[in-house]
Amino acid sequence: MNTFCFAVVGAAANQAELVYIWQQATPEAKTIIVFLIFFSIMAWFVMFSKAIQMRRAKKLNHLFAGAFKTQKTPLDLFDQRIQADGCPQFAVYQAGSLELDARLKNPDGSRKKFVSLKGMEHVKRSLENTVAQESLKLESGLILLAIAVSGGPFLGLLGTVWGVMSTFGHIAQQGSATLAAMAPGVAAALITTVAGLLVAIPSMFGYNWLVHNLRVQTVELDNFAQELTSKMETEYLEEK
């Protein structure tokens, strides 16, 4: 029971310390802290949304890869008119199939058996462009985390330096350099560095994890595009 009471008193004291430090902070430091809090909320939102997006894309890619391996010809799934929104591999497959289908179409609507080498080059470029577009979709938003990792500590340091400068200037005006006069200002200045680190550290871990998953999915997209190109060439490229 005594331990619980001490814990409650300690928590209340810590809360009171933070409130006191906040009250002693300069307007510039408070502005920086509020900005860092807003920045932290945005960074956490990006981390959660991108993690959900990449997890969903990975799951859909796995399901589509299983269906793609069971088809007899590269255009079987295309002819079935299936849809898989949010699946990067399907987007690549759809773009390549549309281009190949356009090259195989006769004026009467029937489909030719083969496509020329020039036509297959157009199909390859369509696949490459779609791979790049899907990679950019997965990468979008990561710049905010990179800014949080690099900029958060510097903003916190700016607030600390400004607060210390203001504290020493105030002490110089008073003409007394006691610990009681210096401690509140220095403590209030250091809280901005803490706020900057609280923004940067989670953003760093989240950014590294997301970049790793992005590289894995980009490599998988490139491999799928090459596999699809190989199958299309084997099935539809005109031999001379």
What would you say about this model in short?
The chain has one domain.
Verbal overview:
The chain is mainly alpha-helical. The chain is 84% helix and 0% strand. The protein has one domain. The chain contains 7 helices and no strands.
Provide the low-confidence segments as ranges: 1-12
- Class per helix and strand makeup: mainly alpha
Mean pLDDT: 83
| Oligomeric form | single chain
> Into which percentage range does the β-strand content fall?
under 5%
Percent in helix: over 70%
How do the strands and helices of this protein lay out in sequence?
Layout: H1 2-24, H2 27-69, H3 76-79, H4 88-104, H5 117-139, H6 142-174, H7 179-236
Features:
single chain; 240 residues; mainly alpha; 7 helices; 0% strand; disordered N terminus
